[in-house]
Structures
1.
Amino acid sequence: MTGRRSFLAALALVLIEGIAYASPPVQLTFDGRVKRGAVFVPSGDEIVFAVRETSPSLVLKRLKIADGTVTRLHPQAGLPETNATFAADGKTYAYLELTGNDAVVVHISDVKHTRNDVLKFSQPIPWDPCITPDGKAVVVSLDGQIVRRDLGSNAEQALTKSAGSNNWPHVSPDGRAVVFCSSRHGDYELYTIGVDGGAERRLTESPGMDGHPSWSPDGRKIAFTSTRDGQYEIYVIDADGSNPRRVTHHPERDDFAAWHSDGQKLLIVSERDGRQDLYLVEVPQ
Amino acid sequence: MIEVGSFRAQSHAGISRRAFVQAAFAVPFLSTANAARAVAAAEAPASGAAKSVILLWLWGGPSHVDTFDPKPAAPVEIRGPFSTIATRTTGVRFTELFPGLAARSHLFSLVRSNRNLSNEHCLAGSIALTGAPGDNGDDGYGPNMGSVVQRLHAGRNDLPPFVAVTQGRLGSALGVMKGYGGGKWGQAYDPFDVTCRDTSEVELPALRLLDGLGTDRLNDRQELLGHLDRVERLAEHASYAGWNLNFRRAYRLLTSPEGKRAFDLSRESAQTQGAYGRTIFGQSCLLARRLVEANVPYIQVNWSKWVESIFGAQTDFGWDTHRLNFEFLADHHGPILDRAVSALLDDLDQRGLLKSTLVVALGEFGRTPKISKDGGRDHWPQCYCSLWAGAGIQPGRVVGASDERGYEPTTAAINPDSVAATILRQTGVTTERLAELRLLPNSHVIEDLL
């Protein structure tokens, strides 16, 4: 426990005080359970993530950077929840609730819990939601296509209509584009498309799957998972697809990258000795 | 209220086993005529290459195309989004989700021409686990393969011969699977259910009637005896007969040091626990290996209780991926399965147990080669695959083949009766013995595996 506290104290200094930090990766959680979809809240002082538990089977939790405490985001929730995503102002967030047999709804809530809109989509399982920076729309994958839903009119617009599977959308910080993965030309590769549709651009062409893209806060880089070197590792490319850099080098799985607001570090789910925990890793420049 | 009735063994994180274990250890085994009647007496023992069987039951039906029978040359609407990787077996490729198993293909063989007789989960599951349809639609099933082994093997006295490592009795949104246990032979041949958590904790649901007894009362021998007498009187009611048997089995193993040890995952090193992955399925596979070491002849490890991948509060991520097939396989199912089965094969091999342990992994059917309009894959019993290792199985083989798009076998289809006959043959149950038991008539052993 002492080691954990000192880790967290160092982490708090790194994240709150902005002290320069160098590798190795900093471990943030210690329970070893299956995790997914970790994100920093925009203020940078908390992390929200989903963890596999017994009942419900997926629980959203928040990790306070300052003291390392982990608590449930929705202590009363009786249904599995996952994939929290925050608007740029940090006041609004979305998450998925698994409500029934192949049935999922998107909740749009404010962080003070004074508002909670429940969105049902035209198809029963919206997945991997991402709120646009202005908080006016949410982009999801829906039955293998990327779909944008306006939160005012509730109109759905299919951004992609391609062959193959289109998954894991993430909206750029300027709100103009969406990066996503598609298998239209073979295995999963990264593409971008305008947030209102329009021309698509292929960013990667590699052996193996490229998935779970995440746009950096300045919009200049994209982090993602790839199996191009044999198993799940984290990579970063420039937003035009150039300059690929490998971030992680570990024989076990590294996945679900999300950026810290400083654009220098990534929050990832790493498997170490069979235990899945959150780690903070530095992005090579 | 603490769960006194549960046997809990925790990982190195430090939760200790319950005081109940120590208390129960001091109490003599109960005996009544009712119980004696219920306990199945082992018949003439069978012997074969497999001293133990581990059946990895991938409930919900994994896609054969997205796992071990990929179709990279097929159109995009069939091949799916995953690339393929080479294995150690010349000419055999898996999808990229299984690098661990690809590197260990010299330890196992594949069947790529499995076929089932139903496209409904519980029917197909019942047929797959018993080898045959029921006598009357979804009813009148014969015994699970494990129930046959239980009946014919003279197992240890203190460990149940047929253990299911499970989150509960298998089912779907449409109901429970009826062909799960002893079937027409009765509840006496049902599996002994054990629940394993990702935290390496093991629980015996059969002991839940003891819940409510505080630790202090359990430490009082007279108090415990009185409670057990009350439980037994309750159990003498006919409807409790099957449960009573399982309670007795649980009680018996808890009074056995070796029995307790077999279920205690905290005795494994952190390295070994981690090798399997800190997941329910991973730790369940590790428990199966411990039960093999304890000479349990048949262990069925269930991936999930429910077929559904998303099922509201009951969600436990089955393989029934009508939607989100590719997301779940990439994010969850694929990595967990690859790690756990790879570790199990390595562990059995390194301990010299693989040659006497038959490992079979399969679901009740495959999934449609063509991706559905919902972005997933639906049920496909016409053609799917299974993984076989150990105990007389010749490794590195591929038995049977599917067509270029994975719709139909291009070789003779291998039906569930052949799967069951092969598993039972390896445990020493001969065709003649099956005939005596009136099981699996006209079935054929998959000789190409042997």
2.
Amino acid sequence: MTPVTSAPARIILICSGKGGVGKTTLTANLGIALAKLGERTTVLDADFGLRNLDLLLGLENRIVYTAQDVLSETCRLEQALVKHKQQPNLSLLPAGNPRMLEWLTPEDMQKIVKLIAAQADYVLIDCPAGVEQGFKNAAMASQEAIVITTPEISAVRDADRVIGLLNTMNVAPVQLVLNRVRPKMVANQDMLAVESVTDILALPLLGLVVEDEQVIVATNRGEPLTLNGSATAAGKAYHNIAKRLRGEDVPLIDPSKERKGLRARLMNKLRQSGLF
Amino acid sequence: MALLDFIHRLLGLQKPSATTAKERLQLVLAHDRSDLNPELLEQMRREILEVVQKYVEIDIDGGDVSLATEDRVTALVANLPIRRAKIGPAQQRPSPPEDTSSPSAARESSSAEHPSEAPTADPTPVDALDAASPAPSEGPPDHGEDTSSAKDHEEAAIQGNT
């Protein structure tokens, strides 16, 4: 077993309120990206009713034990942690299995997170959707949080609710990731602008991820985009988020520059020239 | 974007949907964050207007009490156009009774203090109100109905971080 280093692990909740905005995708990609940067990272799937993090990481066939088995001392933590083959710095722990009927208690959650944190640099908790007990348990075990949202009013509204709850639970800092931005629609004023969302939620922007079909391809394969370089727009964005999380100063991508078409570039030039 | 939408927008008939989305969000979040339902807000609006009406004559139809939100701080914003100040017995400042008997020239300006001399609106205090708010008109100050354009904003932060 590797010796435990002195620096305490960062315990980060990844939450959104609304389902389907990209919590699990962010957790998987961020986990891989941090592991690649040499950080010992454990991702904890706090949603056991509808757990999916194992699928996104391609680890679904290797789960034997869950956090519950560790708590009931059926197995040791090392046995329950599923190591990623290509990125051994990354391991996954599911909180429970879908047959479980009750949530873990907040105390259980805190206990298991403490155990994981003792041998990791980063603990990423993939939070269940909603603002009920599952969210509260996960939040109570976390120190800081990343709220992820898309530029849609329903997602932003739910994110706002989550941010309010995190504030009352003393989870800080809370940072924002804006997911699935469509630059063309933003340019046409048919999608909320990045500044509109950050203004409304009043959170520092940790990252911006443009809509990218490759995310679906990666999910199909169980190989997060960050696993294979950063050739895709979303993959690059996730890598940048990992770097910023570690304190590196990486400038945000400008969504309008992501449009690589000749017409788009020409339009940008024209706009910059001030003729219009 | 559909062609019809594009034409509408070009003609200025329709706001961009992102603008609509932002406005709707800001409104709904102001209510979410303060936990005030529209009914309660309406009740509060009525009571605020009643209090304000005791002191100034306001344009009820032009009045607006709403929630606004900025930087996660929700504020109650009342926009109440003032027609004129109400100077009557109900509103006089507490003044010592011997003042009425002292024949001082310096007291002329404070004639409003005498309930018998100023039973209804006195133009002087209305001017004072006008001066405090952005000038409503460029011409010489008209007394009476014209002062209704003077608007005062009353803002009261009712909630901190939610």
